[in-house]
Amino acid sequence: MIDDGFTRREVLLNKPSVGVYVPPMIWGRQWQYSADAALVVFASELYDPNDYIRDYNAFLSAVRAAD
Fold first, then answer.
1. Could you count the other beta carbons within 10 Å of the beta carbon of residue 4?
2. Cβ(23)–Cβ(64) under 8 Å?
3. pTM for the full model?
4. Which CB contacts under 8 angstroms, 24+ apart, belong to 42-50?
5. What pLDDT does residue 67 have?
6. For 25-58, b where at least 16 C-beta lie within 10 A, e where not — what string?
7. Which residues sit opposite 3 in a β-bridge?
8. Nearest of 36, 30, 35 to residue 10 by alpha carbon
9. Using one digit for the tens of pLDDT, what is the confidence trace for 7-61?
10. Alpha-carbon span 30 to 50, nearest angstrom
């Protein structure tokens, strides 16, 4: 699921040749993995937990304040 604070969309990833680009300030949630699934993340920066908003309401406030 991807959500920009205004529109939410579910994306079914059922082919290994298909992926989803998730830019900054997009809320993402992954679930319903098959037994043979793998989640691969390519990032331009090293992981820093302080770079992430972990509360959905705080995310909505940040997105709508920037609008």
1. 14
2. no
3. 0.83
4. none
5. 76
6. eebeeeeeeeeeeeeeeeeeeeeeeeeeeeeeee
7. 8, 27
8. 30
9. 999 999 988 899 999 999 999 999 999 898 888 999 999 999 999 999 999 999 9
10. 20
